[in-house]
Each structure stands twice: as structure tokens, then as C-alpha cells.
Amino acid sequence: MTRPAAALPSSFLGQAGRWLLLLGGLLCYGLSLRLMIDAHVGVSPWDVFHIGISRKTGLSVGQVSILVGAVLVAFTALGLRERVGPGTVLNVVLIGLVLDWLAPLSPHPTFWPWQWAQFGLGLLLIGFATGAYVSAGMGAGPRDSLMLGLSRVLGWPVGRIRTGVELVVLLLGTLLGGPVGLGTLAFALVVGPSVAWGLKLFERWR
Q: pLDDT, tens digit, for every residue of 57-90?
């Protein structure tokens, strides 16, 4: 008589599920940013900044994203004493790599309804992706860590810090020649509800 295979411990399954949420969420996040960039109707404030630096330096958008993320992680960990988890490090690396990997594969629509459809898909995906990787509970992304750390140190509400940081980044990116458009405004208006939907979708795993 053959013995039945031993069941995997629930703790192992739980840990594997967290890693799956983290990696899947970060891959989807990179895809969402790539779709919005290549829709050519405007991008998020951080991507205005990244693309502006890319245009000035000749580095790819993904490389700039990784470098900026690494600087933010170093500052928040050493200067603001924020915890750095594996999700924080993978957030920096994977999203930047995916941005560059998908660059030759992503559509570049020129008919405006398709441009906005692609941008809208990217916005929907960013909420899904955020819900997934946040639910993994393995460390905040570098930009979120910056906002949380500044909020704790300055004693200001996170919302005010986030708005201030996004405006500063948008201004710097615009001065560097990053692409600002109606999509930038659409991102500012819709990203909150999109992320709220994603977090609710994955709340059972948190």
C-alpha cells in the first residue's frame, strides 16, 4: 500500500501565496506603467520625472526608475529610519526591468480612442497590481516609504505629504521635458479609486 503524500504545511502555502501576490503584483505594475507611457496621452507625475531624466541622460526609463528607487530606499532607510522589506527591494528592481522588457512589445496606438482605452487599461491594472503587492505585506514601495517616513518625521498627514511630493516631482519632470498631458490629470483623478478597488479586491489576503 502506498502512503499518501504529506500535505504541505499551511504556513508554507501562506508564504508561497504572499510571494505570488508580490511578484505578480509588481509585474502587473510594470505592465500598467508601460501601457500608460505608450498611450502617449500623459503619464503619472513620477513617470513625467523618470522620462524627463531619461531624455536628458540617454538612460532607459526602466534604468532611471531603478536608480531613483534605489536613492529613495537609501534615503528612507538611513535618513528616515523606515523599514526596508524584500518587497521594497523587488519593487525597485522588477518594475524598472519590466518597463524596459516590455518596451518593444507594448502597442503605440495613434487613434485617440485606442490611446485612451490603453491608458484606461493601465489605470485599471495599477489598482489591481497595488492591491496584490500591498496584500503580500512584504514591504512598501520606495515612493510609499518616502511619504510614510516624511509624514512620521514632520507630523503632517500622509495625504498632504503625498500631494506635495507629487507636485514637486511633476514640476521637476516638466522642467526636464517629461510628457505632461490630459492623461496626467486623469491619473491624478482616477488612481485613488483604482487603488481602493484593488485593495478591496485583495483584502481577504491581508
A: 999 999 999 999 999 999 999 999 888 889 999 9
CA nearest to 133, candidates 21, 36, 55, 58 = 21
Find how far residue 141's CA is from the centre of its chain: 7
Give 10-residue mean pLDDT values along the chain (206 residues): 46 74 94 97 96 97 97 93 89 96 96 97 94 87 86 84 88 95 92 87 74
CA distances from 185 to 36, 42, 189 (A): 13, 8, 6
Kindly report the length of the chain. 206
Give the span between the Cα atoms of 130 and 199, in whole angstroms.
7
Report the C-alpha gap between 138 and 118 in whole angstroms.
Answer: 30
Amino acid at 189: L
Neighbours of 157 (CB within 10 A): 10
Query: pTM score > 0.90 for this model?
Result: no
3-state secondary structure at position 162: helix
